[in-house]
Amino acid sequence: MVIEGSNQFGRVRANNVVPGHADDQSAYCSELAGLYAIVAAISNICRVHYVEAGQVEIGCNGLSALQESFHPDKVPYDPTAPHYDLIAICYLQARLLSQSLGSHAT
Predict the structure, then answer these.
(1) For residues 23 and 37, what is the distance between their CA atoms, to the nearest angstrom?
(2) Distance, C-alpha 100 to centroid of its chain
(3) Of 104 and 54, which is predicted with more confidence?
(4) pLDDT tens readout for residues 49-66
(5) How many angstroms separate the CA atoms of 78 and 88, rounded?
(6) What does the pLDDT look like over 7-21, one tens digit per residue?
(7) Distance between CA atoms of residues 84 and 70, nearest Å
(8) Cα Rg of the chain, angstroms
(9) What is the per-residue pLDDT across 72-88, written as a single tens digit (0 to 9) for each?
(10) Torsion of CA 17, 12, 53, 67, to 10 degrees
């Protein structure tokens, strides 16, 4: 994952480990784990540096993962759905970040 401002100064690069058994891995699961890592990192950066306003634009190759995690009209509700845990935590973390930074955080 990469977090970057208007230029490369202060760029944050990180790797994360995708949870789950090797048989459960997929591109979709990896995209969800990356999205969660991004939102968690941004939340921590805002907390540590007392950021109270701003905008965040998150992108990834997996449109489906992006929509499942951040679409305002899609609330994760089915705990039996594949990767529900990652979808739900992305959704919750994004909502908390949005409340901290204003409505344009997601």
Answers:
(1) 21
(2) 15
(3) 54
(4) 898 888 888 878 878 888
(5) 10
(6) 888 888 888 888 788
(7) 13
(8) 14
(9) 677 777 888 888 888 88
(10) -40
The tokens describing 54, both together, are 């701003």
* Axis-axis angle for helices 63-70, 84-101 (nearest 10): 60
What per-residue confidence (pLDDT) applies to 106? 41
Is a pLDDT exceeding 60 seen at residue 41?
yes
Segment holding 46, helix H or strand E: helix 27-48
Match 């950021």 to its residue by tokens. 51
Write down the domain spans for the chain: 2-101
Supply the pLDDT for residue 105: 43
* DSSP reduced 3-state for 37: helix
Is the separation of the CB atoms in 41 and 35 below 8 Å? no
Phi, psi of 23 (to 5 degrees): -70, -20
Query: How far apart are the C-alpha atoms of 39 and 57, rounded to whole Å?
Result: 10
